[in-house]
Write the structure tokens for this entry.
Amino acid sequence: MKVMKALPEIRLETARPTLDTRPLEKRVGLIALATDHTSEVDFRRMVASERIGIYVARIPYANPTTPENLRKMQPSLSAGAALILPDEPLDAVCYSCTSASVVIGDAEIEQAIHAAKPGVPAVTPPMAGVRGLNAFGVKRISILTPYTVETSRPMAAYFAAHGFDIQSFSCLGFEDDREMARITPAFLVELARKVTHPQADALFVSCTALRAALAVPAMEEAIGRPVVTSNQASAWNCLRLCGDEVPRPEFGRLWTKPLAK
């Protein structure tokens, strides 16, 4: 039988450490779908740093991606926001679903987030997309989504309501966001070349599931115009809200632009 050695005396240090105000200077909350493969990865790649932390909560979501299923997430938004560093302030909260944001509405999403995090700037991907396109001063745009025609219609109405002249709108007919995440960035580059209207001044690529942020520089080179995508614009918007104005052209032309006040 093995004999246990005597345990050492545990001594409580009386000197107390100096505490930083926060572990990291800035905090960005991300509300992601339970099925999302892409948003968290993109935010950690583009936003997270030694100064800025990304804090994620996931909320229930069930495919297929239809307006009805997207709308069902609304009651979960406040609870999702409340799970992100409870009782601690955040510098921004992003609800990372483009199609649900246009179906539910930006104001309704902001209200739901503020129920848990009063006063925090709330960001949605379509809102960030509008801000990104406005940073270029463009009005004539093409739009690409991976959704069905039914799910794409609210997206067209959203951007038209924000004053954009939609020169062309193309969709891929996918119903499952997990499959959308498997579309290769290289395919998106070739698709951008195909679907961007000659009279469009910029291309907006919708959907936080798409790995489109990885393809932005190549898409911009292919079409010779600015490209704004859901995750790229949301991450840019959140970073600017954290006071980071450093140009990062490796993430696309948008990342050389300030956020309009």
